[in-house]
Design goal:
TIM Barrel; alpha/beta; binds iron/sulfur cluster; two-stranded parallel sheet; about 325 residues; Arc Repressor Mutant, subunit A; about 20% strand; 10 helices
């Protein structure tokens, strides 16, 4: 079976129930962030190209939306950076015309926002969540490890320009990495940048599931809250409400699908599925026995990962 460009629906705190659309294949990105949940970047590029065939993506979306599923959003996200695909605007416009009942969202690292044509493609998307982890060249390179052709100044200017004209909901996410971008002086500079943007909500996040490197630690609750105060940011969590109960076989499938996208604790799976902790524990134990999942212990708890490795990022 080939790579599927459509995944979910995935419940998330920010976007409700969201169908994910992946416009690249694993893992094409302009960055290789130290905290990435999708594993190491295998093709690091700053060049926009057709990393997925838009006709195939459209066909897959059509198949999933034909039955009018209950969804809050269709979200461009997944394994890597969606804006790298030259067809982002084309697919987004097609969605708006054919399925106007579904709101559209984009999760992006914003590294290409210096490009006015790309900003135009994104302008009609109702929610844009852009990640900005540093305004300092050295820290940006240490945290996000971008392609050498990515220019931080152009990226920041591009986000500023976008925020001024954008009429949708702009979320700017800052990922706190202890020891790399958490110095008070750096946070003060970040705050200045966020203040220079047009209307937007600044959110702060930290690692709470296995990332690319085991040395990347989550920030403590206290550090997160302190940074949130400096930045005037909202600390964000992982998952939102449940979707109701399911039969065990279907639930097992669902668990596999969820953890193939992102590692989860039993608690996360309980919140997503609506099943009881006992039910989830029993099913993940069965999946572990059959070799379909593995475990990883982190400060937040024991995470379950699909045996084939990490999956694409999902809306948080
Ligand atoms: S976190 Fe996002 S921007 Fe960073 S490497 Fe992963 S997919 Fe790319």
């Amino acid at each position: 079976m080939g790579f599927s460009h459509v995944f979910g629906p995935v419940p998330s705190r920010r976007l409700g129930l969201s169908l994910g659309v992946d416009l690249v294949t694993p893992k094409v990105c302009s960055c290789d962030c130290v905290y990435c949940e999708c594993g190491p970047t295998t093709k690091k590029t700053a060049q926009r190209a057709l990393y997925a065939d838009p006709a195939k993506v459209i066909e897959e979306i059509d198949q999933r939306l034909a039955g009018s599923p209950k969804l809050d959003f269709v979200t461009f996200s997944g394994f890597g950076e969606p804006t790298l695909n030259l067809a982002l605007g084309e697919v987004a416009d097609w969605l708006a015309k054919k399925y106007p009942q579904y709101r559209r969202a984009l999760l992006t690292n914003a590294t290409l926002f210096g490009n006015p044509a790309l900003r135009k493609e994104c302008a009609g998307i109702g929610v844009v969540a852009a990640s900005v982890d540093s305004v300092d060249e050295k820290i940006f390179r240490a945290v996000n490890r971008p392609h050498p052709d990515i220019c931080l100044e152009e990226m920041l200017e591009g986000i500023r320009a976008f925020s001024k004209d954008y009429s949708g909901r702009l979320l700017v996410e800052f990922f706190l990495v202890p020891g790399l971008n958490d110095q008070p002086e750096h946070l003060a500079r970040m705050k200045k940048f966020f203040d220079s943007l047009g209307p937007c909500i600044v959110e702060i996040n930290t690692l709470d599931r296995p990332g690319t490197f085991s040395w990347v630690a989550p920030a403590s609750r206290q550090a997160l809250e302190q940074a949130a105060r400096i930045l005037g940011a909202v600390p964000i969590g992982s998952f939102c409400q449940s979707q109701g109960s399911m039969a065990p076989a279907a639930l097992k499938e669902r668990i596999l699908e969820i953890i193939s996208r992102r590692p989860c604790t039993v608690d996360d799976l309980v919140k997503i599925s609506g099943a009881s902790p006992q039910e989830i524990e029993k099913l993940v134990a069965e999946l572990a026995t059959s070799g379909l999942v593995t475990k990883k212990t982190l400060p937040r708890g024991v995470f379950f990962l699909a045996q084939q490795g990490p999956g694409p990022k999902s809306p948080t």
